[in-house]
Each structure stands twice: as C-alpha cells, then as structure tokens.
Design a protein that fits this description.
With 303 residues, this protein is mainly beta. It has a single domain, classed as Beta-galactosidase, Chain A, domain 5 (Distorted Sandwich). It is built from 3 helices and 23 strands. Strands 6-7-8-9-23-19-18-13-16 form a 9-stranded antiparallel beta sheet, with no helix packed on it. Strands 5, 11, 12, 14, 15, 17, 20 and 21 form an 8-stranded antiparallel beta sheet that branches. Strand 3 and strand 4 form a beta hairpin. It is globular, with a radius of gyration of 19 Å. The structure holds 6-O-phosphono-beta-D-tagatofuranose. The site of 6-O-phosphono-beta-D-tagatofuranose (TA6) has 11 residues, from strand 20 and strand 21.
C-alpha cells in the first residue's frame, strides 16, 4: 500500500495534467511518463534512465530490450544508461559493477517543468555510505532531460567534497535501428579510436563507420556531431554533444549477444550504441566546489 501512496504523492507533487505523470513502470519501478504535444517519453527513477523518446510525427528513437531486467541492482538494457564514475570495469576492483554504480541505484525526482523546448525532468543522486563503499568521494550528480522535438540530456557533476574528483562518464545511448548491418555513421572520418575488440589498439577511422562484426570503438579527441543513417527506417538520428571528448560506438554482434541474458533473441541487430562520453584519457578532474556539465542532443529527420 505504501508504494501506491508514494506514487500518488509523487504524481500529485510533480505531475502536470495531460503532460507528465509519475506512474508504476516495469518491475514496479517508478517512471515519469511524458505525453506532451512535442514528444512522448519515459524516464525511470532507477538510474535516472531515459527508456523512450518519440518526438511528434516520428517513431520511437530508442531501443529497449524485450528481456531487460527491472530490479534494484540491475541496469535496464536499452534507452540511455548513465555510466559514472567509471566506464566498463573499475581498474582497481574486478568486483565493482561495470560502468559504475549510478545506473543501478534509485535517484531522487527533483522537478518536472514544461517550457518552450518541451518537458524538462530533473533527477539527482548524492554520495552516501553505499557509494563510498565503491568510491570514496563526495558528489552530487544531476540528470536533466528535456523531452521535445529534440531530446536534450545534461549530466552535471558537482564536487561537494574537499578533495579533487576524477571520474569517467558516458551517456550510453541505444539507438533503435532496423538492421545494424545496413546502417552507417557519418562524422568520424579521420578520427583516431581505441578498438576494445583488439586490446584497445589505436587506429584511424576511414570514411563512415559501418558494422559487420562485434564493434566496440572509443573515438578520442572528438567533439564532432555524428549522424546515424538508417536506410530501412529511412531516418537519420543526429547526436550533437558538448564538453565530451570521446564518442563510443558499440554493437555486440551475434557472438557478443550470446553473453547478454537480458537481450531478446536477435535483438542485437536492432540497436547501435553511440555514446557521448569522457572516458580513459579524457576522464574529468574537478577541484572541490567545481562542477562539470556534459550535454548531448538527439534529433531525428527523414532520409
Ligand atoms: O559502451 C560499450 C561497452 O563498454 C561495451 O564494452 C559493452 O560492455 C557495453 O558497454 C555494454 O555494457 P553493459 O555493462 O551494459 O552490458
């Protein structure tokens, strides 16, 4: 009964009639649903994770696995997971959760505001005894997402401690596509990348990125916008970013998908992750009291 009461209280406090409501999502997890004239969308309090964005006149832009787990301690497979304060494994602790600990924690809902750009949902998480177990740092992390004709994501990290913070971060976006073997990614021609399928060897991208096998590339020293062209869905998904020096491109292909129990049969073909990030040599250092905002804007257009 308490859970229902809590949801009713949250919806009464934050909901906007016919525009935004706080409701029970998959697995009983709390979700904010957006139903505005500019866009429909969904964002879970679990991991402050966007799971859906459908601008008016378009189809769903984000991929969500049919086999995703919906429980504390597990990341939702799809949408836009937040990786913080490390990316992939933690260098000094093989037992630490992959991609950090914020995508598997409940955040706090701070505000839902309708503005000219759409509906802005803000959630935050702060350091506590759980986070200190993995990372002895004091921080506040704010995720502000504006659901409109574009999807704007802002991830703000504030160093609330007395010592410098050093962290990696990624907006791990799962773009929904028809068939990964037919798409191409424009905007990274000539860019250096670290190939995680080849011991992170440094290589140079020649022309568009196309996917014909397991791909896990961290493009470095790039602030470029990139266009994901999908001939079958006849659309282009554009990622523009700010204060992000790396762009990760990932698809597990068939062999990598075998190890993902939370991915439906054959669903590896239906997404390509393109991630605004600051990882490896581009990790961020913040002095006490300083803050850093990484932002990304997704937009779609017909091909
Ligand atoms: O972003 C690419 C990547 O780091 C890959 O190496 C792969 O591990 C992927 O993230 C998915 O990670 P996850 O922990 O969500 O299964």
């Amino acid at each position: 009964m308490n859970a229902v009461l809590d949801l009713t209280k949250l919806d009464r406090r934050f909901g906007i009639p016919n525009i935004a409501r706080v409701c029970e999502g998959d697995g009983g997890l709390t979700r904010v649903d957006i139903t505005s004239p500019l866009a429909y969308g969904g964002m879970y309090v679990h991991g402050a994770q966007v799971t859906s964005w459908r601008p008016a006149g378009s189809e769903e832009v984000l991929f969500l696995s049919s086999k995703s787990l919906w429980e504390e301690g597990q990341a939702i497979r799809g949408g836009i997971p937040l990786c913080f304060p490390w990316f992939r494994g933690k260098a000094d602790d093989p037992h630490a959760p992959a991609h950090g600990f914020v995508r598997t924690r409940s955040w706090q809902l701070y505000s839902i505001v309708e503005n000219n750009a759409g509906v802005a949902v803000t959630m935050f998480i702060e350091s506590d005894e759980q986070t200190r177990r993995w990372w002895p740092a004091e921080f506040r992390l704010v995720h502000r997402v504006t659901f409109g004709s574009e999807l704007k994501l802002e991830l703000v990290c504030i160093n609330t401690g007395k010592t410098p913070l050093h962290f990696e971060e990624a907006l791990h976006t799962y773009n929904r596509i028809a068939d990964v073997g037919t798409v191409r990614l424009q905007g990274l021609d000539g860019t250096r990348f670290l190939d995680n399928t080849d011991s992170n060897k440094e290589k140079t991208q020649l022309g568009n990125v196309t996917i014909a096998s397991q791909t896990d590339n961290a493009f470095i020293n790039t602030q470029n916008a990139v266009d994901l062209l999908d001939p079958k869905l006849r659309r282009r998904i554009r990622l523009q970013k700010a204060n992000s020096s790396t762009t990760v491109v990932w698809n597990p292909w068939q062999e990598g998908a075998r190890g993902l129990r939370d991915l439906g049969e054959g669903e590896w073909k239906q997404f390509l992750c393109v991630e605004a990030s600051n990882i490896m040599g581009a990790a961020v250092t913040l002095a006490p009291g300083q803050e850093h905002t990484t932002s990304a804007v997704l937009s779609v257009a017909r091909l």
